[in-house]
Amino acid sequence: MGGFKCVCGRLFSGSHNPGEQFRLVPDDLFDQIAWPDPSDLDTEERQRAVEASFSSLYACGNCGRLHREGDNGSLTPYVADASPPRIWADFTVRDEIGRVLLRHDRSLADIRRQKLLLNPPLEVVLYDDTGTEARGEAGFGDDGAGGWDETLWAVTLEGSDA
């Protein structure tokens, strides 16, 4: 398989994703493949069982989606968890249009721990130590020169005008 792009933006480049590509083995063929009888090692039946298990499964290290390769090379994505990522935020740190900026060490640690890549718009849940939680949409922050800073996350909270 060539490369493909996960919905979250993570790129898969075929076999260059160690630890993220797996082979699927149907239950009815597992014993033949994993624990063959020594007399079955070179049989056509075992060879067919091994070839039938060549369907690949790719696990996205960014968003947790699984991508299953079908018989014709098509990919079917499966979402591991539909809940948006939770990121600690200092709700008082805002940009000029009122978006919450995620530049605090705790915010960045949550982003790193969850291996998040920002591919706007990204739905997130922000929280702080007081128990406040707010849903919002993360996008790139302003670089101060009229462009976007892709290293700065800015979150527009639900119900805000920003």
Plain-language structure description:
It contains three helices and eleven strands, in the order βββααβββββαβββ. A five-stranded mixed beta sheet has the order 7-9-10-11-8. Strands 3-4-5-6 form a four-stranded antiparallel beta sheet, with no helix packed on it. The chain has helices at residues 27-34, 44-52, 105-113; strands at 3-5, 11-13, 21-23, 56-59, 66-69, 75-78, 86-88, 100-101, 122-127, 133-142, 148-157. The model has no long low-confidence stretch (mean pLDDT 82). The chain is an alpha+beta fold and 162 residues long. The two termini are 43 Å apart. The longest helix has 9 residues, at 44-52. Helix content is 16%, strand content 32%.
The main β sheet shows up as: 5 strands, mixed
Give the N-terminus to C-terminus distance in angstroms. Answer: 43 Å
Q: Helix tally?
A: 3
Structural class, from secondary structure content?
Answer: alpha+beta
Mean pLDDT: 82
Provide the low-confidence segments as ranges. Answer: none
- Overall 3D geometry? elongated
Succession of helices and strands: EEEHHEEEEEHEEE
- Rg estimate, integer Å: 22 Å
How many strands in all? 11
Give the fraction of residues assigned to helices: 10-25%
What is the strand arrangement across the widest sheet?
Answer: 7-9-10-11-8
Strand content: 25-35%
Topology of this protein?
Blueprint: E1 3-5, E2 11-13, E3 21-23, H1 27-34, H2 44-52, E4 56-59, E5 66-69, E6 75-78, E7 86-88, E8 100-101, H3 105-113, E9 122-127, E10 133-142, E11 148-157
Parallel strand pairs: 7-9
Antiparallel strand pairs: 1-2, 3-4, 4-5, 5-6, 8-11, 9-10, 10-11
Helix pairs in contact: 1-2
